[in-house]
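Recap quiz, item 2
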Amino acid sequence: GAGVSQSPRYKVAKRGQDVALRCDPISGHVSLFWYQQALGQGPEFLTYFQNEAQLDKSGLPSDRFFAERPEGSVSTLKIQRTQQEDSAVYLCASSLGTYNEQFFGPGTRLTVL
Amino acid sequence: GQNIDQPTEMTATEGAIVQINCTYQTSGFNGLFWYQQHAGEAPTFLSYNVLDGLEEKGRFSSFLSRSKGYSYLLLKELQMKDSASYLCAVRRSGGYQKVTFGTGTKLQVIP
């Protein structure tokens, strides 16, 4: 498929566990965004990459959250020592550039018990 | 910073017209997006306005007034499949032009 893909689609973690969420953007898209979406809310910005450079990480809630895009394509969002308040849907989006509309992946629903 | 307001929920009848409003306050403005999000699915792009006026795309139209900090999404000939959340998102000027989303309006279309 030509869309944005994310894996896993669902993740259940025990409190304190580390998790890694993967995003495969549309080929050739320079910009990549991570969002957190709580139930009934809009997507909240977490971080932004332009190619492999992380230009904005101001939305990451704490230092337990870390994102990387080492080769400018696939990105991973890592959450260390998960807490119950981390439970949400994590959306990845990519775009040709920041002037263009964003294409979203299906998201990863994280549940922390 | 940015502040985006939209109604939380709306209900409309199949075949009717519905208008979803969005007001925003931002320190720098460079465009407004509307996205549709069905429950449990990813947001999908509907429209983009950067100049004042109405943009029409089939059954959906979007309007922007920059001086009033106001936009609306107009859905005509409503269908049951239009039941979804509609997200207003504002792009700021400067830097990499970050996009901020509103909380969304959940639209229920009833027979």
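The CA atoms of residues 14 and 79 of chain B lie 5 Å apart.
Chain B touches chain A at residues 33, 41-45, 48, 87, 89, 96-104, 106 (CB under 8 Å).
End of item.
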